[in-house]
Amino acid sequence: MEIHRIHPELLERQVRVLVVGCGGTGSAVVAGLPYLHQSLMAHGHPGGLHVTVVDGDTISPANCIRQPYSRSEIGLNKAIVLVNRLNLFWGLKWEAVPAHLRPGTFISRNYSGDDLRAHIVVGCVDTRAARAIIATSTSGFSAVGYLLDIGNSVSSGQFVLGEPQNARNKRSRSRLRTVAELFPEIVDPSLDDDNEPSCSAIQALDRQECFVNALLAQHALALLARLFRYGEISYHGGFINLASGVTSVLRIDPECWKRTRRLNKHTAPLKQRHKEDSNGRANEGRVASPDRRT
């Protein structure tokens, strides 16, 4: 087991955080980020957080069951509603982008053009296609420092903090592997289930239990808080199962990463066969980690 130390530049200036998706999990993450911002400022951080939320979805009646939106907000954009609410309450100047992340979008730390800027990207999306876009947008010439991915199924899920291999994070043995590197199937659009999400409130609750999103968001936020508070972490993710009550952490261990990738290479054909046997319904997300919904 190894220790990961925070990128020094995140302690020297305001930290730009980009949250992609503000559904069940994303809204819980965004609602918790002001507390992290306040904590950083109280400990003498020079600028705290500046958060941008990206989501092109509008609020539906089903969203009002387990997401922090009211019936009076049905039809309005999720990102705008949530960010305006937080800005008014906390006196912040955070931003909302009422659009989906598009293929070809470039996310970096310093670029001041039309594309998005972020030191930390938090992915809270519910399709593999969207995850693939995030993975591409934060790699290559991007200079994003961290990518935190959160996903879930009915009663279980995972959160994984990684360092995308890009202009900022060079290839190295100790670089935190991203969820896409550890579980490649999670960014395979061919495994997406076109029948999700459901517009029915009852079906939405059947697909995802009430508190799985909030619990995963709290664990992910706690990981970020420890990274900033102590300057280092000994794990970079975890897996939670509400049905069994089991929680396990993803240690910072290059040998463990290698074993995980080898295992996934062997199990990928079985998952594809299961998908074909289910007439295209990607049920494998319910029986194998990682989970992808938010």
Looking at the chains present, what oligomeric state does this protein adopt?
single chain
- Count the DSSP helices: 9
Give the neighbour order of strands across the main sheet.
Answer: 4-3-2-7-8-9-11-12
Q: At the third CATH level, what is the topology name?
A: Rossmann fold
CATH level-1 class? Alpha Beta
Q: Tell me the number of structural domains.
A: 1
Helix content: 25-40%
Q: Tell me, rounded to a whole number, the average pLDDT.
A: 88
**Relevant CATH superfamily:** NAD(P)-binding Rossmann-like Domain
**Structural class by secondary-structure content:** alpha/beta
> How much of the residues is beta strand, in percent?
15-25%
Distance between the termini: 30 Å
Shape: globular
- Order of helices and strands, N to C? EEHEHHEEEEHEEHHHEEEHH
Our Rg estimate from Cα atoms comes to 18 Å
Low-confidence segments, ≥5 residues, pLDDT <50? 278-289
How is the topology of this model organized?
Blueprint lengths: L3 E2 L9 E6 L3 H19 L6 E6 L8 H4 L11 H13 L4 E3 L9 E2 L7 E2 L2 E4 L4 H10 L8 E7 L3 E7 L16 H4 L18 H7 L4 H19 L1 E2 L1 E7 L4 E6 L2 H24 L6 H4 L7
Parallel strand pairs: 2-3, 2-7, 3-4, 5-6, 7-8
Antiparallel strand pairs: 1-10, 8-9, 9-11, 11-12
